[in-house]
Amino acid sequence: SSGRYEDIYFVNEKIGWAVHHGTIIKTSDGGDSWQVQFNDESLSGIFRSVAFADSLRGWAGTLGGELLQTNDGGSSWARLDTMITPKPEGVCDLSVVSNSAVFGSGRWSGPTNFLISTDAGASWENKSLAAYASLLIGCKFLTPSSGFVVGSSALANEGGVVLHTSDGGATWEVRHKTM
């Protein structure tokens, strides 16, 4: 296909998924072959992120704020973003830490969505990190409590920013910023 793949996630050396525009593809043989699992070019944004807790349960997010979940390894996908208030405007990155803790961040052009699920995606909280950043493009959680998000500072004269939380996203501190 034309363009580029935006994200890839493997749960083991054989099983993985990649996202591109409105398409999710899966490999079960370590990348030797790929099958389309989901294709919907009518989404308001292209897929930007994909992550899985195990070989069955995973999530994919778009630049338009759609968030999809599968519980059957990608054979079917359901929209979750319609139940999130406020609805995210973009999901640029996802970080799965455990069977129950999933985090997301976005969007590359703002605003600063920060998504939290502590019940395996059954419910989600969307927080604004606008006090710290004007846009977010990545997140990585090491435990359900400790994690990082990266993007651009909320102050126009500053550049990139790295934020850290030690309480699951309730509070944040600036760990690094560029001038």
Task: Describe what you observe in this structure.
This protein is mostly beta strands. The chain contains no helices and 16 strands. Strands 1-2-3-4 form a four-stranded antiparallel β-sheet, with no helix packed on it. Strands 5-6-7-8 form a four-stranded antiparallel β-sheet, with no helix packed on it. Strands 9-10-11-12 form a four-stranded antiparallel β-sheet, with no helix packed on it. The relative contact order is 0.12. The model has no long low-confidence stretch (mean pLDDT about 95).
Task: List the topology elements.
Elements: E1 7-10, E2 16-20, E3 23-27, E4 35-39, E5 47-52, E6 58-62, E7 67-70, E8 78-79, E9 93-96, E10 102-106, E11 113-117, E12 125-128, E13 133-141, E14 147-153, E15 160-165, E16 173-177
Antiparallel strand pairs: 1-2, 2-3, 3-4, 5-6, 6-7, 7-8, 9-10, 10-11, 11-12, 13-14, 14-15, 15-16
Radius of gyration: 16 Å
Name the helix and strand elements from N-terminus to C-terminus, one letter apiece: EEEEEEEEEEEEEEEE
Side by side, the strands of the main sheet go: 1-2-3-4
Mean pLDDT: 93
Determine the number of helices (DSSP H or I, runs of at least 4 residues).
0
Question: Biggest sheet, in brief?
Answer: 4 strands, antiparallel
What is the first-to-last residue Cα distance? 38 Å
Strand content: over 45%
Number of strands: 16
What percent of the residues sit in helical stretches (DSSP H or I)? under 10%
Report the uncertain regions.
none
Structural class: mainly beta
Q: Note the overall shape.
A: globular
